[in-house]
Amino acid sequence: MYSSVKKYLEDHQAQSLEDLKQFLRFESISADSKCREQMKQTAEFVRNRLESAGLKAEIHPTAGHPIVTGQWRKAKDAPTVLIYGHYDVQPPDPLELWTSPPFEPEVREGKIYARGATDDKGQMLTHLLAIEAWLKTAGKLPVNVIFVIEGEEEVGSNNLDLFLAEKKEEYACDVAVVSDTSMYAPDLPAITYGLRGILACEVTLTGPNRDLHSGVFGGAVANPINVLTKMLGSLQDDQGKILIPGFYDDVLELGEDEKKEFSSLPFDEAAFMKDLGINTLQGEAGYSTIERRWARPTFDINGIYGGYSGEGPKTIIPSTATAKITCRLVPNQNAAQLTSAIKSHLESICPTSVTMEFTDFHGCEGIVFDTSGPYFQAASRAIQNAFGTRPVFIREGGSIPVVATFQEIFGVETLLLGWGLNSDNLHSPNEHFHLENFYRGTLASASLWEELVS
Amino acid sequence: MYSSVKKYLEDHQAQSLEDLKQFLRFESISADSKCREQMKQTAEFVRNRLESAGLKAEIHPTAGHPIVTGQWRKAKDAPTVLIYGHYDVQPPDPLELWTSPPFEPEVREGKIYARGATDDKGQMLTHLLAIEAWLKTAGKLPVNVIFVIEGEEEVGSNNLDLFLAEKKEEYACDVAVVSDTSMYAPDLPAITYGLRGILACEVTLTGPNRDLHSGVFGGAVANPINVLTKMLGSLQDDQGKILIPGFYDDVLELGEDEKKEFSSLPFDEAAFMKDLGINTLQGEAGYSTIERRWARPTFDINGIYGGYSGEGPKTIIPSTATAKITCRLVPNQNAAQLTSAIKSHLESICPTSVTMEFTDFHGCEGIVFDTSGPYFQAASRAIQNAFGTRPVFIREGGSIPVVATFQEIFGVETLLLGWGLNSDNLHSPNEHFHLENFYRGTLASASLWEELVS
Questions:
Q1: Is residue A256 assigned to a domain?
Q2: pLDDT exceeds cutoff 90 at A93
């Protein structure tokens, strides 16, 4: 059937582009309370579009922005696929850096420019269009599908977990599909099978009850910034190895096969450094740059502040100093347990001359899937069918909490099939999506439903 | 002659208070450009008041606020005393915390409340009134005097050094007198014979040319905050000993006599901690709290910033991190030399993965005078005559750059004779000056001119 579905999609490319443009015109900025009405209208657009594609669609109000679902469940004895996406977008500021207005989609040199073009309206739409093509041509799908399209991904997905937990039985599924990641490089499609987890916390040290004159008190009273730098500075060695007791205990080490695959990926270290404006890469000894980014845990201080930050000097001993910390975690590390380990260790090295306050911002676990399983192999074939190139299996250094949620609630793997490129300016001005990848992604999706059962 | 001068001052107490009130009504806030006209009027008031006291007075324009001088140079073969003070005051904010308006002086319970009451209008006026009393009663002074009253002390005295350097020969003198410090405690007058010096600098580390996603890049790229905390954290041991090579080489150690004198001073450590809201004092091992504050060098990070400082977490690797540092120095340490030592050491421990920028804000040397000399002994007798109590000789942990200037330009010691109290709220709302100390300070000044030649 794929060939006739493919023909349908090729014949309807112009219509697909119009659909995408219409979707992109909604100012669905979840972070902006002025967009509440636009958010509702966007959810209605998604619901209507799912319906016109042939699915049973519904809008579910939440404490925040609504969640839209669409189902087609008539493939007896076939697997059920949960397709996740989000219709909300990042704020478009700074507006003056956009060549064309962020909510007036414009095609230039084969790319469509608009906020949300790649993240995630364009990518999620590929699945809707592919399923529509199946239903319009074959009148049915090889698998059952459940779309879950949320409106709060860019603001923390606060209501999604609750919603999915409620639907645990109704939405029982065999695999999840998400297109919200990237290809490895132009013309090199990728399936992401591993993600790092994350933990986030904040530590504040308080010394004297007010900023003190450094002449009158200096030398006799603990300075919270001095103490904080001493504490934090002791947590890593010169090679970036994290010295918190037990930190690496549960790390799932990379296998030789994965190491070999990573090292076979094209990676231009000189260009990477040039882009960042640095002349040395720094990281844990014994690992390559890709390994450090995808498969090793980190300890990063994301922000630090205390005392005076204006021009010139100011002779004070500050009352407080604060650091914000995130650790990227790798599979098998437990976020809550490591957060406790960090807290305990900091407490153990914190002198009595200051008081320490620790805030746990919670996190999520890292994920790694077995790519030799049937779903991953099906996705690989589908992408090869559409792109003409076998995709590479990659990990990513970031965290996609919803993947952990799907594993936890439904016990399923997630196929992260990215049609975007890292250079598509997601979260930045002039966000865009290559139309070629939009069309190829749609074909890959169309092929996937068949491959999943072949 | 002192007894008749004293009687004159006692008879004219009401007039002295009126003089002080009039002086305090000027809004001479040097930091506030809206006060430029008031600053001029204050300088004119000082000039006129010096003239009516019987001195030859002059206003000297500078690139900033004018300097006022007043001279009486008719004491042949007698020493010449340079009396320094400042007519500018700190801004009075926050205004709502003042019980009475900051520029409407009001006497309550024996204290006069106004901005500048103790810092420094009230204290400097004591010398003017004492000299006036001498000239009105004896028709002459036992010494020659040169008043130098600047209007930029609260904003860094930017034009004073230049002015004094120009007057190096004209203002050649034997000793300087400054009343801009504090008594050791109520009813325990003090002469400050030692001050710490200071150096101030700033260090900024730059890693990537922009904030990076900590998931995509974390582990492979140096995080400037991580690096900065590691560098700074290595500069002191757990006891607060500074580990910069050579830092203590030139330190003039305290003699046993001074240690004994310090330990004999009343000092309530429990009350000191309670006031600061801390339960442990922390400082260099082997030294008392007073020794640490007055006679040991320090390394304080006065401010640190980099990355995210808003609510919650943010998953970035920041591009830069900055720390502001001041060290209090003790006599014999050289500010410029130690600033270089800090810079060199930081450079030597800075990894190649970040670039370091270092800014030297300059500083001044510490000072310690020999209290057994004739001028210090004369000041001690004068204070005993006026207060009925022998003053204690103390050091202070802060820095008064003008004292180093007087030593450098005129080669003279400075008698720091404080009539204020640390609790007088200088630089805070409800600044005040005990009238009893105002009157006793005036008498001590009157006695000093005679004691200096006896």
A1: no
A2: no
Same domain, B235 and B372: no
Task: For residue range B335-367, list pLDDT tens digits in order.
Answer: 999 999 999 999 999 999 999 999 999 889 999
Domain range enclosing A169? 2-195+367-451
Of B213, B219, B351, the CB nearest to A296: B219
Pair (A168, A246) in one structural domain: no
For residue B284, being part of any structural domain is answered with no
Q: For residues B283 and B296, give the distance between their C-alpha atoms in angstroms, rounded to a whole number.
A: 10
Cα B146 from Cα A109, distance rounded (Å): 80
The answer to whether residues A186 and A225 belong to one domain is no
| pLDDT score of A116 more than 90 | yes
Q: Say which CATH number the domain at A410 has.
A: 3.40.630.10
Chain B residues touching residue A222 (CB < 8 angstroms): 278, 280, 282
Tokens for A56? 């049973």
H helices within B54-148, ranges in order? Answer: 121-137
Predicted TM-score (pTM) of the model is 0.90
Q: What is the pLDDT of residues A363-407, one digit of tens each?
A: 899 999 999 999 999 999 999 999 999 999 999 999 899 999 999
Q: How many domains does chain A have?
A: 2
Query: Do the chains contact at A282 and B351, CB–CB below 8 Å?
Result: yes
CB A25 within 8 A of CB A103: yes
Q: What distance in Å separates the CA atoms of residue A440 and residue A433, rounded to the nearest whole number? A: 12
Cβ of B307: how many Cβ atoms within 10 Å?
24
Residue bearing tokens 């900051």:
B102
Q: Do B215 and A198 touch (CB under 8 A)?
A: yes
Interface contact A444, partner B, CB < 8 A: no
Chain A contact for B289 (CB, 8 A cutoff): yes
- Which residues is B88 bridged to in the sheet? none
